[in-house]
Amino acid sequence: MKRLLSVFAISALAALAADITGTWKASAEGPNGAMERTFNFKQDGAKLTGETTSSMVGKSTITDGKVEGDTVTFTITAEVGGKEMKINYTGTIAGNEIKLKSEAAGNTYEWTAKKQ
Questions:
Q1: By C-alpha distance, which of 20, 58, 17, 57 is closest to 40?
Q2: Residues 40, 43, 48, 49: is their CA dihedral positive or negative?
């Protein structure tokens, strides 16, 4: 019975997760001015995949993505200066807006993404 309740509780939590499937345009202030990035999210329950594009690093695949309630986390690998760099994102979903923080190589940027 306990196991059945646990499965039911996990299913209920997954159902409460926001669905962010679709295209999102994001912007952040960087050291050289405004930065822009487009995210194309594909969500299946709590699992998040997709890709992202920016003028600085081109197209990257979203990996290790999860949506739990109003929290989103994922990683991309981008090529910067001829080197591969992992960029970790964490964010909070609020309707048609996601506040994201990206971290890579000691740098942190605050992004605001809006659903298109």
A1: 20
A2: negative
All domains of the chain in start order, with CATH:
2-115 (2.40.128.120)
**pLDDT tens string 9-31:** 454 444 567 899 999 999 999 88
Q: Which helix (H) or strand (E) holds 2?
A: helix 2-16
Q: Where are any strands of DSSP class E within the chain?
A: 22-30, 33-44, 47-54, 58-68, 71-80, 83-94, 97-104, 107-115
Amino acid of residue 30: G
Using a cut of 0.70, tell me whether the model's pTM lies above it. yes
β-bridge mates for residue 110, sequence order: 101
Neighbour tally for 37: CB within 10 Å: 23
